[in-house]
């Protein structure tokens, strides 16, 4: 009122604010959308609600790159659950992530000119991206030489999806997305997956802890990558007991998978952490006590269930070893037959029986993977492809190692430990078509030492 009176006393007059007529579409489009939505809900409620929810979620992920990236990371371990909704769900999420990145990138670089590290160079990140470039070239060359029809296209598409995820994650973690957030979401999703797997096991649905990703060996691989990250994140957390609980749950689930590869990888991870002085003997002792306590509780609370699981594992153990040796021999023969570019993506599932010295005994399940990441890679994309893939893993490890040595960044150290463990476990399982190795390489590149311009 005082200001208004002063204006009147001075003989000044306020001009009415200028208003612009709004476009007709501002009113008409929302009305049409609302009308169509209401008609759809009335005509077919359930599909309309699902479609509407999918559109809202998809739009949100499309306009927020960080959300799209975290959705891909969080959902990877729940692949089999998502397949119940739609078998293409994981591919759709990867496509949405790519589209979201393109939309965000169209507005400029993710790390602006005012960023304190704008223009900084990172040899570790450059090495990871260089290895990816070589791998892409080899994949395309191998596919051109041996297309392998729809099966080859499907496998190539899976390779392409993870290449895209790695590249987008590396770029996003240079800008708005903190590596610590990515690692935290991955640990959280793996903890939830561990709980789901153990609940299904205790209810008798599975004889080994598998849960949301079906194959217990694959679940063990996911959890193997998550445990070092959880321990690394614990150091800077306010509520450390939350991370302790997550590690305990994931460790229990790894033991429940009865995956020898995951257990061996866990041992290697502990050894690397000790050698690089990232953990103390006291911490290793605490981890061992947690594992022994878990085993003791399982034996005391569920003795019959554990006994059945161990008996069934023992029955098939010899057959599994025989099958894997045969599959490794087949992959080796395929590599020797086409050592440079292999037989093309998807070829192992199509041709490995033609290279077996003998057929495995009493096989009642599909043997479409080599149960060895490196041999299957060399069989399909040759020694050049294997060298590029190993180069990627090595570059990711060295990048993470550089971050640990330069800044004593515990997360960078944890990524290196996780990569060492998973690289060993990958000798016994086929994991190039799952997220952990790619995520760890992306985290390593993002956490690498940076040199100011």
Automatic annotation (TrEMBL):
Subcellular locations according to the entry: Membrane
Keyword field contains Transmembrane: yes
Main location: membrane
Record-annotated O-antigen ligase-related domain positions: 245-390
Coiled-coil parts of chain: none
InterPro entries reported for this sequence: O-antigen_ligase-rel_domated, WaaL-like
A GO-annotated cellular component: membrane
Domain of life: Bacteria
Keywords noted in UniProt: Membrane, Transmembrane, Transmembrane helix
The keyword Cell inner membrane is assigned to this record: no
A Pfam family hit: Wzy_C
Topology of this chain in the membrane: Multi-pass membrane protein
PANTHER family according to UniProt: LIPOPOLYSACCHARIDE BIOSYNTHESIS PROTEIN PA4999-RELATED, TEICHURONIC ACID BIOSYNTHESIS PROTEIN TUAE
Name by which UniProt lists this protein: O-antigen ligase-related domain-containing protein
């Amino acid at each position: 009122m005082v200001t208004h009176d002063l204006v009147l006393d001075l003989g000044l007059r306020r001009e009415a604010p200028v208003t612009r007529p709004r476009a007709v579409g501002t009113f008409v489009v929302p009305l049409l959308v609302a009308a169509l939505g209401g008609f759809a809900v009335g005509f077919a409620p359930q599909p309309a609600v699902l479609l509407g929810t999918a559109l809202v979620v998809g739009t949100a992920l499309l306009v927020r790159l960080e959300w799209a990236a975290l959705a891909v990371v969080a959902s990877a371990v729940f692949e089999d659950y998502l397949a119940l909704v739609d078998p293409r769900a994981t591919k759709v999420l990867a496509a949405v992530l790519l589209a979201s990145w393109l939309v965000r990138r169209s507005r400029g670089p993710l790390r602006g000119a005012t960023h304190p590290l704008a223009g900084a160079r990172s040899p570790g990140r450059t090495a990871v991206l260089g290895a990816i470039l070589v791998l892409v070239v080899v994949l395309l060359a191998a596919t051109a030489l041996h297309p392998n029809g729809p099966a080859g296209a499907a496998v190539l598409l899976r390779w392409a999806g993870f290449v895209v995820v790695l590249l987008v994650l590396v770029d996003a973690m240079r800008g708005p997305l903190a590596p610590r957030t990515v690692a935290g979401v991955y640990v959280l999703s793996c903890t939830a997956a561990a709980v789901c797997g153990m609940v299904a096991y205790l209810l008798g649905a599975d004889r080994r802890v598998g849960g949301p990703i079906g194959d217990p060996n694959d679940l063990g691989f996911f959890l193997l990558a998550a445990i070092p990250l959880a321990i690394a994140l614990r150091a800077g957390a306010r509520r450390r007991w939350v991370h302790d609980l997550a590690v305990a749950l994931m460790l229990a689930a790894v033991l429940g998978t009865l995956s020898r590869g995951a257990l061996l990888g866990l041992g290697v991870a502990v050894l690397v952490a000790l050698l690089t002085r990232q953990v103390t003997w006291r911490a290793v002792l605490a981890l061992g006590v947690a594992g022994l306590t878990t085993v003791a509780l399982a034996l005391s609370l569920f003795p019959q269930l554990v006994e059945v699981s161990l008996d069934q594992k023992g029955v098939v153990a010899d057959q599994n070893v025989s099958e894997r040796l045969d599959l490794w021999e087949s992959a080796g023969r395929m590599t020797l037959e086409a050592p440079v570019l292999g037989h093309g993506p998807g070829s192992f599932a199509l041709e490995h029986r033609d290279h077996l010295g003998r057929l495995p005994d009493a096989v009642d399940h599909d043997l479409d993977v080599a149960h060895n990441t490196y041999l299957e890679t060399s069989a399909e994309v040759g020694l050049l492809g294997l060298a590029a893939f190993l180069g990627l893993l090595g570059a990711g490890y060295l990048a993470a190692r550089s971050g640990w040595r330069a800044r004593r960044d515990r997360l960078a150290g944890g990524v290196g430990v996780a990569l060492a463990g998973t690289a060993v476990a990958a000798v016994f399982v086929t994991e190039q078509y799952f997220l952990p190795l790619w995520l760890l390489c992306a985290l390593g590149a993002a956490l690498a030492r940076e040199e100011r311009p």
